[in-house]
Amino acid sequence: MADANSNKSKERKVDEETLQRYKSALWLLTARTTDSLTTELNHNATPQFIAALTEVLWSQIENVAVDVEGFAKHAGRNTVTMDDVMLLARRNEGLEEVLKEVKDEVDKERGEKGKGKKK
Fold it and tell me: 60, 52, 61, 59: which is closest to 34 by C-alpha?
């Protein structure tokens, strides 16, 4: 019994470490993007602003993940697909248009890769 609890604890710790790495990567990307934009606009952003913005982004990512996982589960799937992401964006025309463009590019690339393969 103690062995099972130990394994669960290790799994949670790995998950927490992975999440922390993702959050750190998001902070770095947010800091670089903010720095680039503020340089263009001749403004400054404090580390506190970058940290707060990172927290907002992280919260939004968590919400999106829950929603798309719910769409996939409702469809009887364990894997999130582009259709789930498109369903999430259905009420945001600008986002939906950008995602459609990305989807078209991905589909085109997959088509080109498939043409070169022999069956």
Answer: 52
75 contact partners, CB below 8 Å, separation of at least 6? 83, 84
Report the chain's terminal Cα–Cα distance, integer Å.
51
**Residues whose CB falls within 8 Å of the CB of residue 83, separated by 6 or more in sequence, listed in order:** 71, 75
Q: What is the third-level CATH fold of 2-88?
A: Histone, subunit A (1.10.20)
- Give the count of alpha carbons within 13 A of 115, CB side only: 6
- pLDDT tens-digit readout, 8-36: 555 556 588 999 999 999 999 999 999 99
**Residues with Cβ within 8 Å of residue 17, at least 6 apart in sequence:** none
For the chain, domain boundaries: 2-88
pLDDT tens-digit readout, 103-116: 999 999 998 876 65
DSSP structural state of residue 78 = S
How far is Cα 110 from Cα 87, in angstroms, rounded to an integer? 22
Sign of the Cα torsion 77, 80, 84, 86 reads negative
